[in-house]
Amino acid sequence: MTNPLTEQFSAPLTFNWTLSYSCNFACSHCYSREEQCAELTLAELKQIVDRLARHQVPFINFGGGEPLIHKDLFALSDYARQQGLNVSMNSNGWLLDKQAAEQIKACGFRSVGISIDSADGALHDDFRNRPGSFDRAVNALDELAAAGVRSTMSSVISRINYQNFNDLLDLAREHQVAQVYLHNFKCSGRGFKNRQELDLTPEEWKDFYLEALKVKEETRDLLISFDDPVIASLPGYKENSLVKGSSCGKLSLHLRPNGDMTPCGFIPLVVGNILQDDFEEVWYNSPVLNKMRNKEAKGKCQGCGAYEDCLGGCTARAFATTGDLSEPDPHCWK
Q1: 5: pLDDT confidence band, cut at 50, 70 and 90?
Q2: 260 and 48 in contact (C-beta within 8 Å)?
Q3: Cβ-proximal residues to 285 (8 Å cutoff; 6+ apart), any chain
Q4: What does the alpha-carbon distance between residue 313 and residue 302 come to, in Å, rounded to a whole number?
Q5: What is the pLDDT of residue 174?
Q6: Per-residue pLDDT tens for 26-36?
Q7: Angle 172-177-178 (CA atoms, 0-180°, nearest 5)?
Q8: Among 25, 41, 121, 135, whose Cα sits 20 to 30 Å from the Cα of 94?
Q9: Helix %, strand %, coil % for the chain, to 5?
Q10: Are the beta carbons of 243 and 235 closer than 8 angstroms?
């Protein structure tokens, strides 16, 4: 999968695919709730799958929007599996009943992530702006377990849960969840508008990660994962990832509903269209992607001893708050 001339992967490992921005929730942190975009036909969606298979992209993860709203989700997922791709999905769980779980199983989904942001049902419902969403999400986990589908839990760390994230881990254990993703707060879309209310200070992020990494090290019955490159600036951090800094544009790309490609869902910079443009030309020569892969230290990153490990932290957060891909991550505590 790597090209020795460029020392980079010849294609993304994962395409995070937004089939539609339609959603039955209005979450306080959502990057896409106010986005609008044309959608493709099933025939066009299958053409995309063919292109991904041809370029040996191994993984597709459907997000959104809410994937289960899309009428062609299962037909497309089944087709992708037949073409040799591994398919997963993230859902808010509202529509994931027994029938949906059985369809998910039949289509060969490798895993399904359910978003739960607090073990306190009222807090989760308030954060997701949907009464009853906690009970539906927990039921979705149970339906997945009953259908024999591997489940994960996605929890966005914010002011509502950073001091009691262990409760989320206990909830995962109670409902046979295989892995918990403790996601960093991205500051995009509604997350930017609600940043002052929901985001942590840099020092609070540092304290959270120190505690969470300690819990991860001591935990044997549950996988705990993070997706925040700023963690690499902590002394003694030992995780070995495939790339340093943000993985966006290096290990993954994002697909919008009309086929436009962006570095990730949180960076709204279109680098090309997968149905209209030469993929290899975009992947290797996009000015935006190459700038992300070759970031230059700016501001306090200049001269920082941790820069070679974190590469300035989360590129999406830097772009959302400054408009510059190379500025320091505003979550950085150094």
Answers
A1: very low
A2: no
A3: none
A4: 13
A5: 98
A6: 776 666 556 77
A7: 125
A8: 41
A9: 40, 15, 45
A10: no
Instruction: Indicate the pTM of the whole model.
Output: 0.91
In the chain, the DSSP E strands lie at: 2-3, 8-9, 14-18, 59-63, 86-91, 111-115, 151-156, 179-183, 223-226, 252-255, 260-262, 272-273
Q: What digits encode the pLDDT tens for the residues 62-109?
A: 998 899 999 999 999 999 999 999 999 999 999 999 999 999 999 999
Query: Cα–Cα distance between 299 and 33 in angstroms, integer?
Result: 32
The Cα–Cα gap between 307 and 314 comes to 12
Of 79, 117, 77, 113, nearest to 96 by C-alpha is 113
CA dihedral 177, 115, 247, 1 (to 10 degrees): 60
Give the CA angle between residues 68, 73, 79 to the nearest 5°: 155
Interatomic CA distance for residues 2 and 136, integer angstroms: 42
Close Cβ partners of 105 (under 8 Å, ≥ 6 residues apart): 147, 148, 149
Task: Report the alpha-carbon distance of residue 273 to residue 233 in Å, rounded.
Answer: 35
Over 60: is that where the pLDDT of 137 sits? yes
